[in-house]
Design goal:
The chain folds into two domains: 36 residues, no CATH class; 162 residues, FAS1 domain (Roll), CATH 2.30.180. Helix 6 packs across helix 10. The protein has a seven-stranded mixed β-sheet. The protein is globular, with a radius of gyration of 28 Å. A hairpin with a 5-residue loop joins strand 3 and strand 4. The protein contains ten helices and seven strands. With 222 residues, it is α+β, with helices and mostly antiparallel strands. The longest helix has 18 residues.
Length: 222
């Protein structure tokens, strides 16, 4: 956000001097008071060059409750890839800017799930980071990436149609795939699914979802 600086013009300074001279016969205190009032009024109307406290708070709040070793890989500026940038966008759009999720974003595109994820009212997404896909059997991954229906089922198993905070993680949740996802433990202690996936960066907020970036691709029961 660019802020404009209001400069005092030479005309204002000249007017203040003229007014002071014209009122000198009435007493120096009056002229001094008038000039001071003019200067104070001009100064108070000038916008500040500093970032507003509310903007600073917004950037800070987006990252305040995140946790996990990979959170340090998220940019700390106000770019689209930062916590504040992702918080302003729906989940599929936000993920597309995240440097940890490029393979997942590609898979979402193949499965045609982007619009459905972006238009949902409230979601929790357990998002496998790039290394999670790299750890898979590559022949299996390549086959899945050519099968939108299969890929859609697998990815939907990672999504719960409600927001889940870290202290609510423990339990059994129905996924968009129509099956169940079991989570044991809360917050940093949580393990997700039968694979026992752990959280790399948790409680990442987007405009319509809470995201937990995890270290393993979860497989639904086929």
């Amino acid at each position: 956000m660019k802020l404009q600086t209001l400069r005092r013009t030479g005309a204002l300074a000249t007017a203040a001097i003229t007014l002071s001279v014209g009122l000198a016969a009435c007493g120096s205190d009056d002229s001094s008071s008038t000039a001071s009032d003019d200067t104070s009024s001009s100064s108070s109307s000038a916008p500040s060059e500093e970032t507003s406290p509310s903007e600073d708070a917004g950037m800070t709040d987006a990252a305040a409750d995140t946790y996990g070793p990979a959170c340090g890989d998220i940019p700390t500026d106000d770019s689209a890839a930062s916590f504040s940038g992702m918080a302003a966008e729906p989940v599929a759009t936000a993920a597309s800017a995240n440097p940890l999720l490029s393979t997942l974003v590609e898979a979402v595109g193949v499965a045609g799930l982007g619009d459905a994820l972006n238009s949902a009212e409230a979601l929790t997404v357990f998002a496998p980071a790039n290394p999670a896909f790299e750890a898979m059997d590559q022949a299996t991954l390549e086959a899945a990436m050519k099968d939108p229906k299969l890929l859609g089922t697998v990815l939907s198993h990672h999504v719960v149609p409600e927001r889940i905070s870290p202290d609510q993680l423990s339990g059994e949740f129905e996924t968009l795939a129509g099956d169940k996802l079991t989570i044991e433990g809360e917050g940093e202690e949580a393990t997700i699914g039968t694979e026992g996936a752990t959280v790399l960066c948790g409680n990442v907020q987007t405009a319509n979802a809470t995201v937990y970036i995890i270290d393993t691709v979860l497989m639904p029961a086929m």
